[in-house]
Amino acid sequence: MSKTQRREHWKIEPEEHDYPAARDYLSLLLTEPACAAIVEALRGAETIYRKAKDLVRASRLPLLAADDPHVAEDLRKVKQGELLSPVLLVRGPLAAGLTLIVADGYHRICASYHLDENADIPCRLVDVP
Does residue 83 register a pLDDT over 60? Predict the structure, then answer.
């Protein structure tokens, strides 16, 4: 991958279908009213940037291999010049044992890590209500 592909492969705004995907995932962890509030907050949240390596660490999720089918698809998209959607994140209270929840974009984080672990990834981040 060229340096440009490593740096410039993100959209500024999440895609509309990312929000229902986030809600579906969050519905496995939280009540429906909490999910609705979080997704609404994600829609209005400012886009911030965090490093791929820090997102992996904070979420405590394993880094998926580059040959994982979904990660490989995102890597293919980047190689072809397609832009990836920002990731949607929920910060839980650490004192309660909740880590960073990747509501949508886990595969995109892993793909970006494989391109450059220090890459700044656009994120929408809200706290658990």
Answer: yes
Yes or no: say if 6 and 119 are a contact pair by the CB < 8 Å rule: yes
Mean pLDDT to the nearest integer, 58-71: 96
**Number of structural domains found in the chain:** 1
H or E element at residue 87? strand 87-91
Residue 61, SS3?
A: coil
CA torsion 89→9→120→111, rounded to 10°?
70
Above 90 in pLDDT, residue 109? yes
Listed residue (124, 98, 120, 93) closest to 109, CA to CA: 120
- What range does the domain containing 34 cover? 3-127
Query: What is the rounded distance in angstroms from the CA atom of residue 57 to the CA atom of residue 60?
Result: 5
Among candidates 115, 123, 118, which has minimal Cα distance to 4? 115
Question: Does the pLDDT at position 26 exceed 80?
Answer: yes
Task: Report the distance separating Cα 7 and Cα 72, nearest Å.
Answer: 18
Q: What is the mean pLDDT of the chain?
A: 91
